[in-house]
């Protein structure tokens, strides 16, 4: 499933293609949304933004298309009406004179007015977005110490979008490694210094992944490994997907476990 950095990069690409331009046509695959095709035709896209793993495309008539890629959704930007050869099903298309923004395979798409947007059952419950420039380390640290989350294991807490939105499975492993925290600990088990490390890593690792197209490893190390001919999967992450391979910091073999229903990776020496 795409995580916050991937959705934000998709939002950037969509904005570049369709923002501040009127649509020539809009297509919805779902019957209950068909009436909005005419309503949104000719309207200008004013903002394209991500909110955690959700995408919001706002129009100048105060309507917003909400979508969530879930596991299989994928956005593609093409020349206008230039559809790719794919077995995926087209669920949403927004066209202007030059470009088409195409959403394939996603099943969660809605058109919302301002009131519905404010009270949306998913959006209204999201925690602070770690990719929002307004989100601070202090705010995230306070979140870890909040009584609603204080006694939950970090392995499950970091997947909860009501805690912090935008984090997901690979980021969970990478944040915990950078913070040097064992995944079975709870915020309540951590010292003030450890909480600060968790807060800093939650923001820093996610922002680096956004800027560097998913690379969460030390950037100099990743560059040297790439120059040595290593595949992207071998240099992208510190620990995620690297079971039985040596930790880049201490050389201890990386451990893989299934925690909170998802695979998680950590170094048993660095993360004590």
TrEMBL record:
GO terms for molecular function: class I DNA-(apurinic or apyrimidinic site) endonuclease activity; damaged DNA binding; oxidized pyrimidine nucleobase lesion DNA N-glycosylase activity; zinc ion binding. Its cofactor is Zn(2+). Gene3D superfamilies: 1.10.8.50, MutM-like, N-terminal. InterPro entries: FPG_cat (IPR012319), FPG_N (IPR035937), H2TH_FPG (IPR015886), Ribosomal_uS13-like_H2TH (IPR010979), Znf_DNA_glyclase/AP_lyase (IPR000214), Znf_FPG/IleRS (IPR010663). The keyword Transcription does not apply. Its EC number is 4.2.99.18. Keywords: DNA damage, DNA repair, DNA-binding, Endonuclease, Glycosidase, Hydrolase, Lyase, Metal-binding, Multifunctional enzyme, Nuclease, Zinc, Zinc-finger. Coiled coil: none annotated. Residues 238-272 form the FPG-type domain. The keyword DNA damage applies. Residues 2-101 form the Formamidopyrimidine-DNA glycosylase catalytic domain. GO terms for biological process: base-excision repair. PANTHER family: ENDONUCLEASE 8 (PTHR42697). Belongs to the FPG family. This is DNA-(apurinic or apyrimidinic site) lyase. It comes from Leptolyngbya sp. NK1-12.
């Amino acid at each position: 499933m795409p995580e916050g950095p991937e959705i934000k990069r998709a939002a950037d690409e969509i904005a570049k293609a369709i923002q501040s331009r009127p649509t020539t046509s809009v297509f919805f695959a779902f019957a209950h949304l068909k009436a909005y095709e005419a309503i949104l035709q000719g309207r200008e896209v004013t903002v394209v933004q991500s909110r955690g793993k959700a995408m919001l495309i706002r129009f100048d008539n105060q309507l917003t298309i909400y979508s969530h890629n879930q596991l299989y959704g994928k956005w593609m930007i093409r020349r206008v009406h230039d559809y790719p050869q794919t077995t995926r099903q087209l669920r949403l298309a927004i066209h202007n004179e030059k470009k088409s923004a195409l959403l394939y395979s996603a099943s969660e798409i809605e058109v919302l007015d301002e009131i519905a947007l404010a009270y949306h059952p998913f959006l209204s419950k999201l925690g602070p977005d770690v990719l929002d420039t307004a989100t601070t380390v202090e705010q995230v640290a306070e979140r870890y110490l909040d009584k609603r989350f204080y006694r939950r294991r970090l392995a499950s807490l970091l997947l909860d979008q009501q805690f912090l939105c935008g984090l997901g499975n690979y980021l969970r492993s990478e944040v915990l490694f950078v913070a040097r925290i064992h995944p079975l600990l709870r915020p309540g088990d951590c010292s003030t210094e450890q909480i600060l490390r968790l807060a800093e890593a939650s923001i820093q690792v996610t922002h680096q992944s956004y800027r560097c197209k998913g690379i969460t490893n030390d950037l100099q190390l990743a560059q040297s490994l790439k120059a040595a001919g290593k595949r992207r999967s071998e240099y992208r992450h510190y620990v995620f997907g690297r079971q039985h391979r040596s930790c880049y910091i201490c050389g201890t073999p990386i451990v893989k476990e299934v925690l909170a229903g998802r695979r998680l990776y950590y170094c048993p020496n660095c993360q004590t």
